Amino acid sequence: MSRLRPALLLWLCAAALHAQPFYFPTANRSLFDKGGEEGFFTGTVGKPWMSGTFGCVRTDGRQMHEGLDIRCLQHDKRGEPTDPVLAAADGTVAYFNKKSGLSNYGNYLVLRHVIDGLEVFTLYAHLREIRDDLKAGAAVRAGERIATMGRTTNTREGISRDRAHVHFEINLFVSERFDAWYKKFHPGERNDHGIWNGQNLLGFDPWEVFREEVRLGKNFNLVNHLRAQTELCRVFIRESKLPLATRLAALVIPNPRADAEGVAGYEIALNFNGVPFQLIPRSATEMKSKARLQLLSVNDAEQSRNGCRKLLTKRGTRWELSSHGQQHVELLGY
Ligand SMILES: [Zn+2]
């Protein structure tokens, strides 16, 4: 073997690593085996594996599950899960909760990443333990062990040993002013996790991301992936300096007319989970109505296929934002 070979091998490994933004967060790799879904996902009690995937998969399709429930592979003598949980990408620790009673996520950890110029957050929930030395801001590498799989939660029914799993999400962060929004729309309710409340993190489907990474290889681009989401609706927020447009600058579509005439607000395309995936600045002359929040259009097919977030409601023959949808769009505008 020539002396160059190990160096070449290292280079190839590094190149391969750079080609893929996200990795599986545990050693469970059966997702792409033929019929491997059964071994990859943990369904809810008595339900098939589909109930452990992302989307309108809970309560007979009426309820959203915002992540993947990835099945445990190894147990200790007492039947408790021991699978290492791994960082899905290079990043830093954004937040962790080690008081499992304070969340239905139990012990959970959030990592921050910047991928293809976009800030995204991965979340790992129901952890048995989080690595002690991980403090907020600590850097982690893709594939590094960050925690141990578990079954922590604050729900009364709990999670049984045989359903131990990591709940894994890939999210966009919504608003630095989440606390103010929460006080306004949930008066008197406790929020133990500040801006790291799950409502301030909007998940998109990690399975689709993994699938597209396999399909496109090094051509996978997270921004392109998001911009191609199926649209549920379009809204307009009359806010010329929308913080979300700064945060998600990679998803802003330039509009020369708004540049020339001045930005009055933003037209935003939302997917069925309310994820803003295209933001278009609009000028005052483009937007005739003076309303602060407007519903511009609805994709009926997507609403009937994936309407479980209940962001929209029908009055007579016309769609409008439900009160929940209104609050959601308010949060996007905060
Ligand atoms: Zn879950």
Relevant terms:
single chain, 2 domains, 334 residues, alpha+beta, 4-stranded antiparallel sheet, binds zinc ion, 7-stranded antiparallel sheet
Q: How would you characterize the overall build of this protein?
A:
Helix content is 22%, strand content 28%. By secondary structure, it is of the alpha+beta class. The protein folds into two domains: 210 residues, Glucose Permease (Domain IIA) (Distorted Sandwich); 104 residues, no CATH class. The radius of gyration is 21 Å and the shape is globular. Zinc ion (ZN) binds next to loops.
Layout of helices and strands:
Blueprint: H1 4-19, H2 37-40, E1 55-58, E2 63-65, E3 68-71, E4 84-86, E5 91-97, E6 107-115, E7 118-127, E8 129-130, E9 139-140, E10 145-148, E11 165-173, H3 178-185, E12 201-204, H4 206-216, H5 222-227, E13 233-237, H6 243-247, H7 256-261, E14 265-270, E15 276-282, E16 293-298, H8 300-305, E17 312-315, E18 318-321, H9 323-333
Antiparallel strand pairs: 1-2, 3-11, 4-10, 5-6, 5-9, 6-7, 7-11, 8-10, 11-12, 13-14, 13-16, 14-15, 17-18
The structure holds zinc ion.
